[in-house]
Amino acid sequence: MEIIISSNTSKPIYEQITSQIKAMIMSGALRTGDPIPSMRALAKSIHVSVITVQRAYEDLQRDGFIETTIGRGSFVSAQNKDFYQEEQQRQAEEHLQQAADIARTSGIPLHKLVELLTMFYQETP
Questions:
Q1: Per DSSP, which regions of the chain are E strands?
Q2: pLDDT tens figures, 56-70
Q3: Which residue of 21, 65, 84, 95 has the smallest Cβ count within 10 Å?
Q4: pTM for the predicted model, two decimal places
C-alpha cells in the first residue's frame, strides 16, 4: 500500500493517511477483508510517528472503513454501500463548493455552472 505524504499542504498528516486509505477502499483497490499494514509498519514506511498513524486508523475505524482486532491487525470492513455512497457524496459536495466559489468570484453565472455540471454528469466515462 502506497501512501504519499505531502509537506506542501495544510492538511495534517493523519488526514492525508486517512483520505488516501478511504480513496483506495472506495475505488476498489482495497477490498473487504484485505489486511492494512500494522501501525508500526506504515509509520516506518512513510517516516512518521506511530501516534500519527494510530490517529488515522482510529478515524478510519470510527468511520467504518476498517476493523481492528488485537493480535490480528487491521482489515478493510465489510462494505456498507450506503456509507460509501455518503462518503462519495461528501467528496462531491467539497468539489462543488470549490466550483461554486470559483464561479462566484469569477462572475460565471449560475446557469452556466449548472449547464457545465449537467454536461459533465451526462458524459460517458
A1: 35-36, 66-69, 73-76
A2: 999 999 988 999 988
A3: 95
A4: 0.69
